Amino acid sequence: MALSHQSVSGLSHLRATRLSCAHSWSRVTFFNNLGYLSSLLQCNASTSTRGQLLSRSYATKPGKPKAHTGRPAASKRKPAAARPDAAAGVPKKAPSKKTATRKKPARKAKSKPSPKPKPQGKRKSLTDKQKAAKEKKDAGKKKKDLRKIALLDPPKQLPSTAFIVLSTETSSKGMPVSQHSKELSAQYKSLSPEEMERLNHVANENKAKNEAAFKKWLGEHSPVEIKAANIARSQLRRQAKKEGSKKTYPHIQDERIVKRPQPPYTYFVMERFASGDMKNMKIGEYAALIGREWRALSAEEKKPYEDRAARDKARYTEEYTTVYGTAPQFQKQAKNTA
């Protein structure tokens, strides 16, 4: 095998180093030296590889050299404190902004077609019995709603007359009603003045308590509620009469309720009664007479009564709007027709 000039120069350098380190080479034999030379000749002749082989210590035992991969040696990074730019406080370059990608517009969701209505089958006609049951059920529900609006829960009234006070004080247990009524009437007629005075005193106290309790109960309800309650009571009274019931539903007496306006004919009737010309006459007789007199009046003679009715109507409109917070019914109808 022929040796290159570079290999020979390296060998001479190694020999010179051996002479200076005789104490180390005394342990190495000639055959070991030849083996090391043969491994040296097989390595690449580049400067970096030769420098690595020459810098190897000869005190160690020669072994098989590592195969060269051909990659450059990794450069050692300097610490951040040793960098000149970090020490000088040079600001780092800002990373370049990436161009914003345009978002694709979201697609509009397609509206689903509304499902077609299912064809309804023919409704079965109700029998007469079912119709009667349905009408009865509806009437019962309507009556229940009317009773709720009618405010049928006023405070309980205490006995306010001497006779009723006496009836509450006497016991009627085990006695028929007719017999109790007869005995009570006889007892009331035979009362002494002192006993009658006592009963009247109790009745007057109860009357004052009833008025105070009723006034307090009225204050818990607005005029609008009292007005609706009276309307519901009128409907209940007509329904009871239709059913043959004797139950009555009297209107709630409240001074806050706006009095309805009177027509011109009513003022004429009031004037005729105040004159005293209708005394000792039956209702049907004086009603027919007043009606004939009214029809016989001219327009000028009716005008004073019509003026009084117009003023009363204006009063009613003003009070109705103030108390109930809305216009009267006849004004609403006039606006709708206009």
UniProtKB/TrEMBL annotation:
This is HMG box domain-containing protein. Residues 81-93 have a biased composition (Low complexity). PROSITE patterns: HMG_BOX_2 (PS50118). It comes from the Eukaryota. CDD domains: HMG-box_SF. Residues 258-324 form the HMG box domain. GO terms for cellular component: nucleus. Residues 55-153, 236-256 are annotated as: Disordered. SMART domains: HMG. Residues 125-138, 241-256 have a biased composition (Basic and acidic residues).
